Amino acid sequence: MKKIVFIFMCFMILFNSSCKRGTSSTEKVYEEEQASGDQRMEWFKDAKFGMFIHWGVYSGAGGEWNGETNHAEWLQFTAKIPLKEYTEYAKTFNPIKFNAKEWVSIAKNAGMKYIVVTAKHHDGFAMYDSQTSSHNIVKGSAFKRDPLKELAEECEKQGLKFCTYYSLGRDWEDPDCPTGYAGNIAWRSNLIDYPIEKNKVLQRYLDRKAIPQIKELLTNYGPLGIMWFDTYELVSKQQGQKIVDIIRKLQPECIINSRVGPCLGDYKVNEQEIPEGKYMKPWESCMTMNNHWGYNKADDNWKTNKKLIRHLVDITSKGGNFLLNVGPTGTGVFPEPSLERLKAMGSWLKVNGEAIYETQFSPFEKFNWGRCTIKKDSENTILYFSVFDWPKDGELYIPELKNEVLQSTLLVNNQLIKTRSSNEGLIIKLPKTAPDPIASVIKIVIAGNIELSSL
Ligand code: JFZ
Questions:
Q1: Theoretical Cys-Cys bridge with 182: which of 15, 197, 285, 343, CB 3.0 to 4.6 Å?
Q2: Rounded to an integer, what distance in angstroms lies between the CA atom of residue 120 and that of residue 53?
Q3: In the Cβ-directed half-sphere of 431, how many Cα atoms lie within 13 Å?
Q4: What atom of ligand 1 comes closest to residue 170's alpha carbon?
Q5: Is 40 in a helix, a strand, or coil?
Q6: pLDDT tens digits for 336-383?
Q7: Atom 10 (ligand 1): residue with closest C-alpha?
Q8: pTM for the whole thing?
Q9: Whose alpha carbon is nearest atom 3 of ligand 1?
Q10: Atom of ligand 1 nearest to the CA of 286
Q11: Which atom of ligand 1 is nearest to the CA of 269?
């Protein structure tokens, strides 16, 4: 067991060690929080793959406004729309094709285990039936239904975790939400309707809108998998910790990402990037499929199936989760190119999901030909080598691996493949052609805990 710990210690970059824990008054409180925190994270660490959904009034514009075509979820801000005009525009929002069962089924068939949907983005418009602010989809749009309620119920039925995104430190509807000290830092504020940044009192916004809405989401939509906060801006550690305490009290099992306040939250978020290193603690990479989070009809810069599947493998091999975004249209459907990619990822995972779900990060340095994930059962260790570039000479070389190989197969069809041990490591004899041009998985069962010769 010592070897495993030493291996992991050699390769890992500790999670954000510069952020000291919260201001718990006693170590005991910290240990209890740490223990429950570890337990709370179990489903997340096993899930690996989730769907991010950016959907709001802005989706109706499809990125277009007054002849410009590069808008999306920031529409109100980037098109400089006064709040009164945006509120009028919201009344036209009527996603008649929205079907929660369809959305959740698509996510499930893609192999996704959780859905994070925008409950309130920076425009301050609640996509659920909020009693706190009438700036919401039931009272302020033609739709008059609560899509988050329908999605929450459907996730419950289909066994996916329902999670909500909440823009914490940016709200262009509220007069008291500063994004930075007066001057150029405040560029992310609504300076059209509320031009005097220095008059804004963040705590008033938190007390009047953000905290009551967070409580609504934690009370009226069943168990939440994650409260996914965004852009905490000027929220202080104390203000963020108060929000954490509220969540822990209302739903102790609900996970909180790191954007609830400085040095807070249960896991770190990387945006539109995959870090080089590995992290001992859970982390998540969130990414768009094209260049926009919210629907933009002109954006055809779609990532390929190959890139998305390899991103999932790469992220998993580093101990992270992949939160992949869909920007539904103003009528309430997923864009066709998103559907195609989700179907392709689901097909790959149907065959190779064993190498992704419930695995841990690779004990090896990154291979240039592919990635590795690892799983332990009661007495053996299972290594999954996802091969991106099939070797021309038919051999793969795994340096340092000293363990006895109990079985070696191609995951796709359980075809046995030969291996031989050498002083420097293991050599795997591969069939001539790769079963899958994107990523072919080799499953190797070894006796006991993994042993590398560098130790
Ligand atoms: C924010 C939002 O502004 C955006 O609309 C989207 O919702 C995205 C998921 O989150 O964008 C960010 C937030 C944080 C960083 C970058 C973009 N960051 O920390 O680098």
A1: 197
A2: 12
A3: 16
A4: 3
A5: helix
A6: 999 999 999 999 999 999 999 999 999 998 899 999 999 998 889 999
A7: 230
A8: 0.93
A9: 231
A10: 9
A11: 19
